Amino acid sequence: MHHVFTGNPLDRGDTERRDEDWLRQTALDVNSRVLPVWRLNIPLQDSKGSASLRWANMAPAELSLGTNTLFLGTQDGISHFAVDISQYEDPRSAPGLDASWKFEEARIAASILSASEAGVVAQARAQIHWHTTHKYCGVCGNPTYQRRGGQIRTCQKCSHDHFPRTDPVVIAVIEHEDMCLLGQSRGRLSQMSMYSALAGFVDQGESIEEAVRREVMEESGIEVGQVLYHSSQPWPFPHSLMIGCHGAALTTEIQKDDEEMADVRWFTREDVLSALECNHDHLNVPQPIAIAHHLIRSWAEGRITFPEAKA
Q: What structural domains does the chain harbor?
C-alpha cells in the first residue's frame, strides 16, 4: 500500500554526497533544482489545473545566503536541493522570488500534490526541521556544521557526528469480534471530535509487537494478544515513521489514561463504515492522508484476518 508522503522518486545519492567539492559545484549549477522552504511551508504552483511543487529558477547557492542548503538527491541526472529561507519575514523577498510565490502548510500541500512530489515534501520538511533544531552538539554543547549535503552534522569542537533522526511510532487498530477500539487524545483530536487508532513511540529495547501491546494497555487498559503488521508511512511532523498494525484484544473493559486520552471507546463495524463515508452523526475518523484512515478502513471492510492460535 502506498500512503501519502511515500513514493519519493529521488536517488538520495549516498556516494555522491560524500564528495564535498561535488556538492559545492552542484549547488552552483543553474541546472540544479532548488525548493525554497519557508518556516516549514512548501511552495506550490498551479500546473494545468492541478498543484505541483514550485522550484526556483536559480542555483541553490544563490538562494541560500548562509542558511541550510540540503541535497535531496538526483533524478534524470539533475540534482535537487531544499533551501531554508525562514530568516525572511516575507518569503517573497528572498533572492529570485517575487509576489507570485505562494507557500502552503505541508499537510495541505501533500493532500493535493502527486504521490512523488508529496514524498519529496516529506524528505525536505523533516530534514530542514532537524537541522533547525540541532545546531549544537548534544555531547559538548558547541556549534555543529553540516556535512554530506545535510546527512550529517559534526561538532566543531569534539567532532562528534549527529545524524537526522527518525522516530518510530506504532499505530494500531485493535479489534474484538465485530468492534474496534478507537481513541481521542487530548488536544487536536478532541478539538476536532475525531477518533483514531491508538499510537505511541516505540521505546528503547522494544519490538513493534511489544510497543503495540504496551501503548494500548497504557492508553486504554486493554490487553492485546496477536499483532499483525499492515504498512508504514513517513510522517514529517516533525520526523516520525508510523508503523501501522492491527491487534486482537484479549480483554474488553476500558480503563483509559485520563491524563493522555480524552476518550477511548469500542465502535461497531456499522458505525465505522458510516464514519468512513462521513455519514455518522457522532464519529469522525482521520482523512486518507493519514495511515490511521487506512488501518481503520482495512478493518471495517473485513480485510484483516488473524491466524488461528495454536493449541
A: 16-133 (3.90.79), 167-300 (3.90.79.10)
